[in-house]
Amino acid sequence: MDDTKLTMALIENLLSLVRTSLQKQFGQFVRGESYILNNLLKRSDAALPSELSADMGISTARVAVILNNLENKEYITREMDSSDRRKILVRLTEKGKMRIVDEHKQLFENTRFVIREIGEEDAHELIRILQKIVTVSPTKDVPCVD
After folding, report:
1. How far apart are CA 2 and CA 4, in angstroms?
2. Which CATH architecture has domain 24-134?
3. 92-133 pLDDT, tens digit each
């Protein structure tokens, strides 16, 4: 089977998908300020910057820059851990919670719009295919074959 055309079609469509506003919203939840706010919202307690760094897969220096921005916007607070003064605890403020909840609502409504536009049957099929892609995707680069 020559799967060259199918491969190119999938690549082209995935690249087009990346440029959609919905995908940009999804992208916010896996990096940057929104990721940290979302991460903090899911936690029952504060987080250490090192935990956020590990969760995001980025350097602690990059996390520090993001945390500075979030603190300046009053979306988070940072305080010393009373049991270990070397540790800094990051907490979500009410203002930060409102921002990330609003982003969740917007993402939900935009996704609902897409589902309504493509129809329930295609939405189920899309979910099925995406689940399959996630399970078969290589965890590292596959060697190029000429």
Report:
1. 6
2. Orthogonal Bundle (1.10)
3. 999 999 999 999 999 899 899 999 999 999 999 999 998 998
Whether the predicted pLDDT of 1 surpasses 60: no
119: left (phi over 0), alpha (psi -120 to 50) or beta: left
Sequence-distant (≥ 6) Cβ neighbours of residue 86 within 8 angstroms: none
Tell me how far apart the alpha carbons of residues 54 and 58 are, in angstroms, rounded to a whole number: 7
User: pLDDT for 131-143, tens place per residue?
Assistant: 998 888 777 776 6
> Residue 141: how many CB atoms within 10 A of its CB?
6
| Maximal CA-CA distance, the chain | 64
Name the residue type at position 131. Q
pTM of the model: 0.75
Pairing of strands 88-92, 76-80: antiparallel
The residue ranges of every structural domain in the chain are: 24-134
Task: Burial-class residue 123 by CB neighbours within 10 Å (0-12, 13-18, 19+).
Answer: middle
The backbone region for 47, taken as left when phi is positive above 0, alpha when psi lies in -120 to 50, beta otherwise, is: beta
